[in-house]
Write a structure and sequence with these properties.
Blueprint lengths: L1 H17 L2 H25 L1 H19 L1 H14 L1 H6 L5 H29 L8 H29 L2 H17 L12 H8 L2 H13 L13 H4 L1 H27 L3
Helix pairs in contact: 1-6, 2-3, 2-6, 3-6, 3-7, 3-10, 4-6, 4-7, 4-8, 6-7, 7-8, 7-10, 7-12, 10-12
Length: 260
């Protein structure tokens, strides 16, 4: 399986080399969000301190949005008949999906590195220990892996690129923006606050802020409740649950596509 996965990772990366705009999509879009929120909205939300608060949310948003590459990539391979050709070969079925997930994870690492450099450029700093920073980035990679498998499920279920794009962004935007990625979840009213507090994006962003040593602007209400008090544990648990559910589900959808 590992050899098959490595071959497919190489194949997907060659595609990126031939279509470099795919790499631009993984880096330019997050940069746009950084400058939009840091300078267009940031002046009224807390200035320099808000920019430090913002970056953990941008990191969480970036790894979540990168799952769209897996969604569209698998849907495109299905519609073009590439998956049918791979299915006819003596290779692991899981490797077809794992190869796509792994190559998109590598693109995500590049995008995250660009985000870190951009964060330093606008004044963001890691104020925690080096070990805490390593844990924060490891958490982001774990969450990215879980989101990539969610993207794989979406792409295999959609089978069509246009449908995959629509369905993918249909859930990405509310999950991202109904969280504490850009604001404090405690500032939201009633049911929205409860949803935001238990949102996995909130858990990842909150845990990373704590590990990076980044504080909230003075006007932001402090988060409270079990998810906020145990953000790291909750974020890891969410990522683990998504992997346990999505890996076998994506394999089942892959097998089901053979009968269509």
């Amino acid at each position: 399986m590992f050899a098959d996965t490595a071959i497919l990772v190489e194949r997907n990366l060659i595609t990126v080399r031939r279509i470099p705009t795919l790499l631009l999509s993984a880096t330019v879009q997050p940069l746009m969000f950084v400058f939009l929120f840091a300078y267009v909205f940031g002046a009224t939300l807390g200035g320099d301190q808000y920019r430090e608060f913002l970056m953990a949310g941008i990191f969480a948003q970036t790894v979540l949005f990168n799952s769209a590459f897996t969604t569209v990539g698998l849907a495109n391979d299905l519609s073009d008949g590439i998956v049918d050709r791979l299915r006819s070969l003596p290779m692991s079925r899981l490797a077809v999906i794992a190869g796509r997930v792994t190559s998109d994870m590598l693109l995500g690492v590049i995008g995250l590195a660009v985000m870190v450099a951009c964060g330093f450029a606008i004044g963001w700093r890691i104020r925690g220990s080096a070990l805490d920073a390593v844990i924060a980035f490891a958490l982001l990679m774990l969450f990215a892996l879980a989101m990539a498998w969610v993207g794989a499920v979406t792409g295999l279920a959609a089978r069509n690129v246009e449908v995959a794009q629509s369905v993918g962004f249909l859930w990405m935007f509310p999950v991202t923006f109904l969280s504490s990625a850009f604001i404090s979840a405690a500032s939201l009213p009633g049911p929205l606050r409860a949803i935001a507090e238990w949102n996995p994006v909130t858990a990842v962003a909150t845990a990373c802020r704590e590990l990076f040593g980044n504080t909230s602007p003075p006007d932001f209400p402090d988060p409270s409740g079990w998810p906020a008090d145990h953000a790291l544990v909750y974020a890891i648990a969410w990522s683990g649950i998504l992997l346990v559910v999505c890996i076998p589900l994506s394999l089942w959808l892959y097998r089901r596509s053979a009968s269509r």
